[in-house]
């Protein structure tokens, strides 16, 4: 037991170190891109710099939320602090959307007042940014697979890598064809990508924070499967939600059939069904007799 806990702790500390390194690298990259964007006159390069700064902030939020989430449950937060990471994801997606909207505004402003662009500076700085973005994304990739908080930060980095690729293409187009409007088009495309990804992650975060039914859980099918368990006459007052992105909970009133002698056996059969078919490990079941008060209240009356 102690060895397993030590291994988990080491993995957590290793993840924290990767996040700290990623934050430092993104801050340095942001400074280089801002200088390069101002000197070259490239809006898309400045846009990519702002996104990188937002990345550094998002990684910082992810790191803080990650540490808070490790706190054990207490008398105030009996489910623990795991939702801190969902809150971190919501903060990050909100800033992501704000950056996207700002880029749309800046693109239209630059369209009205165009400026010349130094393509070589754009290509060199964006090329350096691409290397850093890919490296940062790789550092957070493994942690993002099962963690919404880190996933939000990871999406920031992936968007940055794509943005750097787009900026490199813009620099080449400017150098070869002197087509400066490509800078504005690239900025708009990057902004649209940021807004779409931000909306998706925000919706997922809000769904968990609002204690909504998990998106892949059909509450009617759940009720039907529970009623099909021997000894169960009816099910009502069903409430299903996510404690955090990995743990689900359910509470329900179970109307036992008349003559059901072994209520504990029925309860265990229901709990096993919930674990096996619906990935619900935390369930609270209140039993009633069919002659009792089964008033039909609740979403699954």
Characterization of the model:
By secondary structure, the protein is mainly alpha-helical. Residues about 1-10 and about 290-300 have low confidence and may be disordered. Helix 2 packs antiparallel against helix 3. It folds into two domains: about 1-210, Up-down Bundle (Alpha-lytic protease prodomain-like), CATH 1.20.1510; about 220-290, Alpha-Beta Plaits (2-Layer Sandwich). It contains eight helices and three strands; from the N terminus they run H-H-H-H-H-H-H-E-E-H-E. Helices cover about 70% and strands about 10% of the residues.
Q: What's the gist of this structure?
A:
By secondary structure, the protein is mainly α. It contains eight helices and three strands; from the N terminus they run αααααααββαβ. The protein has a three-stranded mixed sheet with strand order 1-2-3, with helices on one face.
């Amino acid at each position: 037991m102690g060895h397993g806990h030590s291994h988990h702790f080491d993995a957590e500390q290793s993840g924290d170190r990767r996040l700290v390194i990623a934050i430092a690298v993104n801050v340095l990259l942001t400074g280089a891109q801002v200088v390069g964007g101002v000197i070259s006159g490239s809006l898309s390069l400045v846009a990519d710099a702002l996104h990188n700064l937002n990345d550094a902030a998002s990684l910082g939020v992810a790191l803080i939320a990650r540490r808070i989430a490790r706190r054990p449950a207490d008398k105030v937060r009996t489910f623990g602090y795991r939702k801190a990471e969902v809150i971190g994801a919501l903060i990050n997606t909100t800033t992501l959307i704000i950056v996207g909207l700002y880029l749309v505004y800046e693109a239209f402003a630059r369209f009205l007042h165009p400026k010349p662009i130094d393509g070589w500076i754009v290509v060199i700085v964006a090329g350096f940014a691409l290397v850093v973005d890919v490296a940062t994304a790789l550092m957070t990739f493994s942690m993002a697979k099962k963690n919404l908080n880190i996933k939000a930060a990871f999406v920031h980095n992936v968007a940055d890598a794509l943005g750097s690729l787009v900026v490199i293409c813009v620099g080449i187009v400017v150098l070869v064809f002197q087509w400066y409007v490509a800078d504005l088009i690239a900025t708009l495309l990057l902004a649209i990508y940021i807004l779409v990804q931000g909306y998706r992650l925000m919706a997922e975060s809000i769904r968990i924070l609002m204690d909504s039914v998990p998106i892949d859980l059909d509450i009617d099918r759940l009720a039907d499967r529970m009623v099909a368990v021997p000894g169960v006459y009816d099910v009502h007052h069903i409430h299903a939600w996510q404690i955090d992105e990995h743990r689900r909970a359910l509470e329900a009133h179970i109307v036992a059939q008349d003559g059901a002698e072994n209520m504990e056996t029925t309860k265990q059969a229901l709990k096993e069904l919930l674990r096996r078919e619906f990935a619900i490990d935390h369930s609270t079941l209140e039993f009633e007799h069919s002659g009792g008060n089964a008033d039909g209240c609740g979403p699954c009356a």
